[in-house]
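hey so u asked for the seq, here:
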Amino acid sequence: MKKLDLVLASQSPRRKELMEVIGLPFRIEVADIDETMDLNGDLVEEIKLLAYRKAKVIADKSQNSVVVGADTIVVYENKVLGKPKNNADAFEMLRLLSGKTHKVLTGVSIIDCGDVKMYCSISDVTFNELSDVEIQKYIETKEPMDKAGAYGIQGFGGCFVREIKGDYYTIMGLPLSLVYQELMTIFS
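ran it, structure tokens below
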């Protein structure tokens, strides 16, 4: 096994949890960058670029490191739904997603001592019809407030999901199989 340092460039507890599943020792360094994206551009390319920018800022200061950067967006009818600003914003997002199918895009960049790989994993998520009362009760849990699209599939928000086409872990924030396969080629 190569003597490389594995770094996750994310403060997301969900990404940390998923990296732990892979079984390689890693450390976390938060990439403090401007996360602005061109929302009028190609969203697949934009999310890959954002993941790359997160990984690159850490890779630039970490010699002999493999850095994993990732970011996730929720898209409905070409509109990006970020983290809600407040309860009203969360309500509006969940009302918009109710009974409909949206896309979750997770961009991943893995920088191995200067070698860059960038990916985008896309999953389609269909919600059940949600009542205003259900939405309000969910918002009261505070779970939606730090999540793109105002829901967490791994929490109570998963109760709203009728169907998934794609990778569950993409929706959680890190396409586990993709990252695992890439890291195994580097660390074995």
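Helices lie at 13-22, 43-59, 87-97, 132-140, 168-172, 176-187. Residues 58 and 116 are 13 Å apart (CA to CA).
lmk if thats what u needed
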